Amino acid sequence: MPVPFIVIEKTNPRNPVEPRKYYAHAKSNGAVDLRTLANQIAAISTLSTPDVLAVLEALLLVIPQHLGEGMIVRLGELGSFSLSIQSAPSASREEVSARNITSNRLKFRPGKLMREKLGKISYEKKE
Is 90 exceeded by the pLDDT of residue 127? Predict the structure, then answer.
């Protein structure tokens, strides 16, 4: 099933007087929850749904732990997770401390196989 998209009009924030342009924008077809994923994985593996759910729940515990230790978490062909941080500026190198950090973001980089599969997705324009 193709991914639906709509057309949206945007202005250039760097040059608001520039003519507006049109862009494709992906639209959600709904959502899938953890239990559904676990049921699907159980159906194609030797694991039961509760076993799959247990593993996925355990990932919620261990991934943030390792990210909090400054590590990159690699999940094979699925991809990798890492943290990036944003901070307030300081006038000198010496003034920069952990207090400057204002937020963090979770970065996900898909693995090679995931990128290949994502490259095969088709799209369909919706009005």
Answer: no
- Structure-token match 């943290």, residue found: 83
Domain ranges of the chain: 72-91+99-121
Amino acid residing at 52: V
Q: Find out whether 4 and 27 touch, Cβ atoms under 8 Å.
A: yes
Over the stretch 74-92, which tens digit does the pLDDT of each residue have?
A: 999 999 999 999 999 999 9
Instruction: Tell me the backbone φ, ψ of residue 38, rounded to 5 degrees.
Output: -60, -40
Is residue 87 within 8 Å of residue 108, measured between CB atoms?
no
Burial tier of 64 (Cβ tally within 10 Å: 0-12, 13-18, 19+)? middle
CA angle 109, 47, 62 (to 5 degrees): 40
Residues 59-76 pLDDT 10s:
999 999 999 999 999 999
